[in-house]
């Protein structure tokens, strides 16, 4: 069976290689891909949308419908992880629990069967079973890094009209900051900053901003996602309305990507229990 | 119609995808607000999808072809949806199947997933809107994006099943991803050769261009990918486990729709994107596909014979049905294609019906091994009635719809002189008959050793009749599962009676004139 698979793979690879010399040369300006639709985008993108970054225009306007569903795929991934992994069963790992006595800073271990402090106790705080000692260097470094990373992500988002960037990248950077917080401190700290409910709702709202913008265009009497019709609402002419709408949908994408990344991390790192984890 | 409705109705090609999708997100959000709202939102979403589909069905029946330009950009620059008679028919089938199963599955979904039920509803609706988009879109890359969302939701829906479901879902994920990658590579080759992603535009370019090895390669890649996605014979391995272990609520809709939509896409690509001469002129590709289907029919049917539980047996029948459609289509004549296209519709209906009947049995008896089916005709007469009708449809006995599509397939085979395929079809019918009558026999004549959980209480008086068989108290499935099932069973008969109209109005216009 393995040999058969190998032969099949070699056969398929050979076919692809044999076909390779029929393909146009790399970067050939006369190839169909560079002569059919590209010139239209290159010539008209700025005029249509007043946005210098053509990639952003193709992504968020000419082919905005694809991009919306890419954001939706990300959302579906978040829900898939939640649906498959999330469980409410708590404390199954090992059986013992660690708590910190806040007034003294002492860490105590409660063996299996021992009486646990109340969930909302002000004196004892539950800490991870795989608890590693407090590391001031890592925590301080990350605390310094996170705000700058977050500002940078906003820059990536806002500057998507002019340079490489945009919603997906900004969302990844922003999501990474929350995950960095969880890694450098612990899952509970980041859950306190951004709960699972927030992550889930943000991811839905993010995609909804994109899809809802499209719906608004439809309700105002134009085709789905045809931003032109939003011009009166955005107090601008049609081309600028497209430019502004690109930013609006990119904000939606950023929110969705960021929230889904964090949400998936929560579920993966704690095996769906969201109490403790890396 | 008043002007506002007129205005709104021209958007039905996009609303069929976006209305379910947006309301599916609302159902998801309900999970964190008020769980009670999740089902109504999902229901409303699929209902509005169904309304949009029926609206398009009526419009296309009048000879209109609906084209919708996303974001107002004309193709090939923007993404367009294009709905002809056949796509409208399939869209209606998708939405109707999904809606009926949603209603029927509500109770079991709420019970199985409790707090996560809203996520199930959301993924279910995402899955369905992905499939609908795949059918409606005219853009080959948009098709891939929608394929992604439908598949991703499908993996999650399957993974939540029992036993080895996570493993089966992983297997499906690997096969599905490989299939999708092949398709995507095909799209890349098409783009390299033509510079376009719009099906109609590409078809025009290819007509002017003449034979081109890159396009042949793209054709092979797309078809290979789709074969894996539709579980055609040598690459069907993921299907039986995935569908057996998935929750019943998921299996019902997935068995009815996933493979069918992949076949629809294969048909659409061959008929309206690639030049027909590429697919049929040499005869080598078409012949190979029909022989593959012939072998697939035999292999699937024999594997079905070897199964010991009902649901698992049915998953192999799904593999057989896929081979019918692939073979029928690649016969390359009008009768065969009509049969394949009609069978997409009929098979979606009868697969849903038979799986829903099994879901009812499993809900009552908790198992579906053949030995668990004893005495079912007495305890669940209505579910078994529906099962009999769907069984007859799968075997292909008139007046159920299954007979008519099979009739077209067989006459297509005879016309093409492809006797292997004809013999395979006939033997598959016989094997299906053996399979189903074995089930009916067990359920009708054999007596359960002990009365089953639910009805033992009602059965204390225990008076035996004098006909030889002890009478068992009725223990039907709950009414919300039974009514959708009966509707589906009646649909199978109705589709049978409407065959002529469906073929003339919706299928015939979709087959190009060159196909004789």
From TrEMBL, chain A:
It is a multi-pass membrane protein. Residues 137-262 form the Na+/H+ antiporter MnhB subunit-related protein domain. Residues 31-87 form the MrpA C-terminal/MbhE domain. This is Multisubunit sodium/proton antiporter MrpB subunit. It is found in: Cell membrane. GO terms for cellular component: plasma membrane. NCBIfam families: PRK12508.1 (NF009162). Its main location: membrane. It holds the Pfam family MbhE. Belongs to the CPA3 antiporters (TC 2.A.63) subunit B family. Keywords: Cell membrane, Membrane, Transmembrane, Transmembrane helix. The chain crosses the membrane at residues 67-85, 144-162, 168-187, 199-225, 245-266.
TrEMBL record, chain B:
It holds the Pfam family Proton_antipo_M. The chain crosses the membrane at residues 12-32, 38-58, 89-107, 119-137, 143-160, 172-194, 214-232, 253-276, 288-306, 313-332, 344-363, 375-397, 417-437, 482-507. GO terms for biological process: ATP synthesis coupled electron transport. This is Multisubunit sodium/proton antiporter MrpD subunit. It is a multi-pass membrane protein. It comes from Desulfobotulus alkaliphilus. It is found in: Cell membrane; Membrane. Its main location: membrane. PANTHER family: NA(+)_H(+) ANTIPORTER SUBUNIT D1, NADH DEHYDROGENASE. The lineage of its organism: Bacteria, Pseudomonadati, Thermodesulfobacteriota, Desulfobacteria, Desulfobacterales. GO terms for molecular function: NADH dehydrogenase (ubiquinone) activity. Belongs to the CPA3 antiporters (TC 2.A.63) subunit D family. One of its GO terms (cellular component) is plasma membrane. Residues 138-430 form the NADH:quinone oxidoreductase/Mrp antiporter transmembrane domain. Keywords: Cell membrane, Membrane, Transmembrane, Transmembrane helix. Coiled coil: none annotated.
């Amino acid at each position: 069976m393995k040999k058969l698979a190998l032969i099949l793979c070699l056969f398929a690879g050979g076919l692809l290689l044999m076909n390779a010399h029929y393909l146009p040369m790399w970067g050939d300006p006369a190839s169909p891909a560079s002569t059919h639709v590209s010139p239209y985008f290159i010539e008209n993108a700025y005029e249509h949308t007043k946005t210098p970054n053509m990639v952003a225009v193709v992504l968020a306007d000419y082919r905005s419908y694809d991009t919306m569903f890419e954001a939706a795929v990300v959302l579906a991934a978040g829900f898939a992880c939640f649906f498959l992994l999330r469980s409410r069963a708590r404390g199954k790992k090992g059986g013992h629990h660690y708590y910190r006595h806040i007034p003294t800073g002492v860490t105590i271990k409660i063996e299996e069967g021992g009486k646990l402090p109340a969930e909302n106790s002000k004196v004892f705080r539950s800490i991870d079973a795989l608890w590693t000692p407090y590391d001031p260097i890592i925590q301080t470094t990350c605390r310094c890094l996170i705000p700058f990373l977050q500002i940078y992500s906003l820059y990536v988002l806002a500057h998507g009209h002019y340079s490489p960037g945009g919603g997906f990248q900004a969302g990844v950077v922003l999501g990474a900051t929350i995950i960095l917080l969880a890694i450098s401190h612990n899952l509970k700290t980041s859950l306190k900053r951004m709960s699972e409910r927030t992550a889930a709702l943000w991811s839905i709202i993010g995609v909804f901003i994109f899809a809802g913008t499209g719906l608004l265009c439809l309700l105002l009497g134009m085709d789905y996602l045809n931003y032109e019709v939003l011009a009166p609402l955005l107090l601008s002419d049609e081309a600028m309305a497209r430019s502004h709408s690109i930013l609006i949908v990119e904000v939606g994408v950023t929110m969705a990507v960021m929230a889904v990344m964090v949400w998936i991390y929560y579920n993966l790192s704690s095996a769906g229990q969201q109490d403790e984890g890396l | 119609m008043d002007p506002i409705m007129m205005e709104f109705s021209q958007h039905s090609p996009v609303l069929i995808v976006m209305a379910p999708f947006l309301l599916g997100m609302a159902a998801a959000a309900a999970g964190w607000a008020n769980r009670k709202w999740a089902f109504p939102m999902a229901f409303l979403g699929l209902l509005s999808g169904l309304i949009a589909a029926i609206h398009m069905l009526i419009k296309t029946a009048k000879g209109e072809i609906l084209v919708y330009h996303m974001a107002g950009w004309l193709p090939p620059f923007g993404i367009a949806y294009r709905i002809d008679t056949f796509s409208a028919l399939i869209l209606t089938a998708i939405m109707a199947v999904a809606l009926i199963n949603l209603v029927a599955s509500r109770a079991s979904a709420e019970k199985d997933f409790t707090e996560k039920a809203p996520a199930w509803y959301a993924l279910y609706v995402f899955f369905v809107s992905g499939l609908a988009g795949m059918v409606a879109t005219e853009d080959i890359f948009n098709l891939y994006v929608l394929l992604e969302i439908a598949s991703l939701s499908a993996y999650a829906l399957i993974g939540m099943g029992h036993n080895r479901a996570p493993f089966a879902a992983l297997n499906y994920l690997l096969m599905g991803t490989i299939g999708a990658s092949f398709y995507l590579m095909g799209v890349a080759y098409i783009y390299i050769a033509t510079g376009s992603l719009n099906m109609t535009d590409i078809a025009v370019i290819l007509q002017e261009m003449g034979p081109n090895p890159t396009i042949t390669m793209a054709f092979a890649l797309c078809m290979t990918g789709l074969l894996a996605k539709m579980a055609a014979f040598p690459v069907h391995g993921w299907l039986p486990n995935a569908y057996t272990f998935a929750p019943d609520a998921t299996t019902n809709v997935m068995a009815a729709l996933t493979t069918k939509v992949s076949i629809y896409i294969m048909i659409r690509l061959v008929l309206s994107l690639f030049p027909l001469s590429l697919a049929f002129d040499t005869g080598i590709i078409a012949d190979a596909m029909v022989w593959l289907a012939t072998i697939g029919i035999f292999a699937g049917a024999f594997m079905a014979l070897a199964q010991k539980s009902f649901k698992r047996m049915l998953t192999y029948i799904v593999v057989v049905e896929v081979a019918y459609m692939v073979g029928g289509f690649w016969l390359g004549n009008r009768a065969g294609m009509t049969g394949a296209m009609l069978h997409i519709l009929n098979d979606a209906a009868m697969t849903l019906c038979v799986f829903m009947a099994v879901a009812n049995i499993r809900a009552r008896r908790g198992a579906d091994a053949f030995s668990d089916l004893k005495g079912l005709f007495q305890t669940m007469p209505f579910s078994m009635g529906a099962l009999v009708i769907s069984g007859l449809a799968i075997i292909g006995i008139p007046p159920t719809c299954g007979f008519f599509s099979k009739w077209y397939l067989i006459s297509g085979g005879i016309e093409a002189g492809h006797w292997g395929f004809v013999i395979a079809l006939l033997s598959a019918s016989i094997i299906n008959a053996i399979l189903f009558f074995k089930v009916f026999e067990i359920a009708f004549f054999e007596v359960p050793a002990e009365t089953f959980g639910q009805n033992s209480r009602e059965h204390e008086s225990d008076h035996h009749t004098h006909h030889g068989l002890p009478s068992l108290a009725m223990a039907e499935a709950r009414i919300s599962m039974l009514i959708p099932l009966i509707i589906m069973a009646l649909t199978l008969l109705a589709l049978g009676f409407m065959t002529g109209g469906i073929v003339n109005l919706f299928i015939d216009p979709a087959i190009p004139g060159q196909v004789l």
